[in-house]
Amino acid sequence: MRQEDMDYDALREKADMLRLTDAVKAIPILMLHVSIIFSAYKQISALFKTTTRFFGVIKW
Length: 60
Known about the structure:
The protein has 60 residues and is mainly alpha-helical. The protein has one helix at residues 3-57. The chain is rod-shaped.
């Protein structure tokens, strides 16, 4: 194998490791976003329930 090919293979292996590391780093950020969205959904859902209950009491 030529030296250039070995250098290329080493760079490719390093790039693969960096991609894997970036993917692992992204997991907590993704979980945070899911948590924020779920929390907002719960709050909006609770607000909607109380609002409809309130306006349901008032007969228009």
